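Q: Structure tokens for this one, please.
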Amino acid sequence: MIGAPAPPSVFESFSAFVGTSTLVVHNADFDIPWLLIMNHVHGTQLHTNQFVCTLDWAKKNQEPRCSLGVLAKKYGIVNSNAHRALSDAIATHALYFCFDNLGKAPRPVQSLNHYTALAERIATRRMAETVTA
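A: Here is the predicted structure, written as tokens:
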């Protein structure tokens, strides 16, 4: 995209912004490994050490359906631009506090190491697919 910052500077800025904060993500097993892979590709590094996945939390709370859209509707969270980054981030933030206030299941916290292992498996599988293609 013309005028957009280069990916390495975007990843560096994001990493600096996040620092060592805990990140809250819906479906972290999908998103965080790709974030780690792209950091690796662009020579940057994510420094945060903990993640809370609201999808995992929904499962621990025995929600019958765990998509962000279904959960937002159930808990009265407005997500008028679903599947757009900012809108989904705001909905995930609100869902985090809904689950925290429910107190049904403990907050599921994962370390960066958990997602690093997933990222390595994804990258290895992608490389194997590339070689055989």
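A few notes: Residues 112-132 form the longest helix (21 residues). Helices lie at 7-18, 28-41, 54-60, 68-74, 85-102, 112-132.
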